[in-house]
Amino acid sequence: QVQLVESGGGSVQAGGSLRLSCAASGSTYRSGCMAWFRQGTGYEREGIAKIDRYGITGYIDSVKGRFTISKDNAKNTLYLQMNSLKPEDTAMYYCAAGAPPTWGGGNCYFGRQLYGQWGQGTQVTVSS
Fold first, then answer.
1. How far apart are CA 128 and CA 120, in angstroms?
2. CA separation (Å) from 83 to 36, 65, 79, 118?
3. Tens digits of per-residue pLDDT, 25-53?
4. What's the rounded mean pLDDT across residues 57-61?
5. C-alpha–C-alpha distance, residues 93 and 66, integer Å
6. What pLDDT score does 63 carry?
7. DSSP letters for 93-128
């Protein structure tokens, strides 16, 4: 079982930056998929950045080039560096952990149902 604790959220003006952290406990962190999701008010929770055990990353188009997901295996910590923030990035941000699906060739995906462990979330608010 992996336990996840996010931190680093806050309020920032448009164009600013924030770095989210997710401290993970448990060995699953190293062998599985890790991802950041977000959920704005009135919206579905969506996956925005993912990283597999080899460090291969993926992003949705709306954050590509602005956000960077990374992890420090020595610290069991996942990060999300967010630059050039926009008001539409305002949301609760969650980190998640899960095993690669058996049908996926070892790859990680954004499907919410593929992630069994979730943090409590950290709020990011971007003002214009």
1. 26
2. 15, 9, 13, 24
3. 866 566 689 999 999 999 999 999 999 98
4. 97
5. 16
6. 98
7. EEEEEEPPPTTTTT-----GGG--EE---EEEEEE-
